[in-house]
Amino acid sequence: MTDARPGGRFERHPRLTGLGLLAGALVLVELSLHVAAPVTLRFAHEMRRLHGYSRTARVDLRPSQSARLRIERSDGQALFDFRVTTGPEAFRIEEGAPPVPPGARYLHAIGDSYTMGWGVDAASSYPARLGRRLAPQLCVLNLGVDGFGAIGATAKSRALAARFPPAQAVYLFCPNDLDDDVRAAAVARRSGLAHAAHEALDAVRRSSMIAGIPFALRYRLQFRAGPGRSGGMGGSDTDIGQTETGQTETGRAETERLDPTDLLLPEPAALTAPPGHTPPEHQPTFIALAEYRDFLRSRGARLLVLVLSTQPESLEAYRFCREQGIEAYLFDVPPSLRLPDEGHFNAAGNEAVAALVERLLREGRSGAGS
User: Fold this and answer.
1) Interatomic CA distance for residues 289 and 370, integer angstroms
2) How far apart are CA 7 and CA 26, in angstroms?
3) What is the pLDDT of residues 312-327, one digit of tens each?
């Protein structure tokens, strides 16, 4: 018996046929994007492949990954172009470097993208340069992750402490760490079902180019920049001798004549709040930091906190450290030691920070918290 209904397949099954055509079109677009994706979309895809959802910190690096991260200026030149490689323990390592030796004395360098070395290759990050300064007495682990606040930074160190017991720890605090911790605390309060849903969504985003389009548009707006200017924090209009690691001839010369303690800022005349006062939304940061201090003390390890800038959030963190007896220092890095149009430390800036940390670890400074 034949089908007497008029019309073709689309008229008979419009919804199924439409879904089939849509699925076919999406597959073709996905395959095309894998072959010839715009720079910002490939950047978004590499970021998704490198990072994963974290129930504790909202985001974390994934183990045993290697991704090239490149964003271009409006004139087609690279704003930054660097590679991030992670080891089996999901922290940044130098490409081709030997495995972290077991049984060594370790320093945990914790923090966000400034610690990780955003914008430069692993060998130019401050933890890598510090490691070369402190070897062979200490092996420095780069536990920095972009997007971390104190919650993620301290949790990562504690999770690795059994395998890599810290003798020292350095936390580089940035003003946006407080907001990152607000978001991390909100993620931690999600139900198990919500966590599972976000993990599934994260897996889809990691495998699909199409899913990365909204993030590519966001990154394009976030990193859009014109011709390079020296330093992301108000430098000059020209950039002399820019190298692959973001170090300028000006920055190199400044590093050579810079005393590391020149980065330290004077003790502020007044801090941002009376003693004992912390805004409720910032409590997660300081609870995590106090617990981490106690964790290290119970193991005989030293904690040093470098607080970047004198923004209100930084002064709030510095005040808390002083009240709690945590060794802390205010510091800043000049524009010539930062990536052009971007603000993170260039190779020379990372070298200057490494020299400062080495000096503080060896000598300390009177007036710091103890």
Assistant:
1) 15
2) 26
3) 999 999 999 999 999 9
